[in-house]
Amino acid sequence: MAQYVSPHPGLEGSGSAFASVAAALGAHGDIGKQVLSTLGVPELVAGEWYPLQMLLDLLKGVARASGDHTLLAIGKALVDHAVWPAMPPSIVDALQMIDVAYHMNHKCDGEVMFDPATGVMREGIGHYRCHPEKHQIIMVCDTPYPSELDRGILLGTARRAASRGVRPRVDVVLDESRPSRKRGADSCTYRVTW
User: Fold this and answer.
1) Whether the Cβ atoms of residue 158 and residue 172 lie closer than 8 Å to each other
2) Residue 28: pLDDT above 80?
3) Looking at per-residue confidence, does 19 or 74 come out higher?
């Protein structure tokens, strides 16, 4: 899936999750306000839903103004603002749960894309696929979000899960030997180690 391009016009993202933009910008919050202003939105409100393309345009504008490192910070902060099922006790379980949380924070044609009561997940927005291996986890992300935002989500989730027990050093790197959305591919592959 291409970065910054909504795959369907009926997709929406949660304003609660995107409160992470303001949190990550901190003292540089004027950048986010300026980008939102150009999009015709005064601010993002928790509990509201916004067109996914508008949110992607916001991220693109923030990245242009302040760089990819800000997308990484937004992704890490997003973990604390998005709707989540209970945070699992291990890094592996937490990374496996990202896909569910991702779908819980998006709507398609007015319906939330994951219903915890039925376990039904709607397709159409991509996935965070988790492949545990010995001493690492391979994550394949085929979302419309920018690569560095996804890396931040993975890093924030792994660190949050790790903070529940012994605090190992967690690292998430883009696997440059595999296809990447940064180079026009449909997905990015990350290696998570601790």
Assistant:
1) yes
2) no
3) 74
At 166, the pLDDT band (50, 70, 90 cuts) reads low
Q: Which residue type is seen at 100? A: V
Chain-centre distance of CA 63, in angstroms? 15
Residue type, 178: R
Query: How far apart are the C-alpha atoms of 176 and 182, rounded to whole Å?
Result: 10
CA 132/CA 103 separation, integer angstroms: 21
The number of C-alpha atoms within 13 Å of 5 and in the hemisphere containing its C-beta is 8
**What is the pLDDT at residue 88?**
77
Q: How many Å apart are CA 123 and CA 120, to the nearest integer?
A: 10
C-alpha angle 162/126/12, rounded to 5°?
95
Q: pLDDT grade, residue 55 (50/70/90)?
A: very high
Q: Please give the full DSSP string across the chain, using - where no structure is assigned.
A: --TT--SSTTEEEETTTTHHHHHHHGGGHHHHHHHHHHTT-S---TT-EEEHHHHHHHHHHHHHHH-HHHHHHHHHHHHHHS--SPPPSSHHHHHHHHHHHHHHTEEETTEESEETTTTEE--SS--EEEEEETTEEEEEE--SS-HHHHHHHHHHHHHHHHTTSS----EEEE-TTS--GGGT-S-EEEEEE-
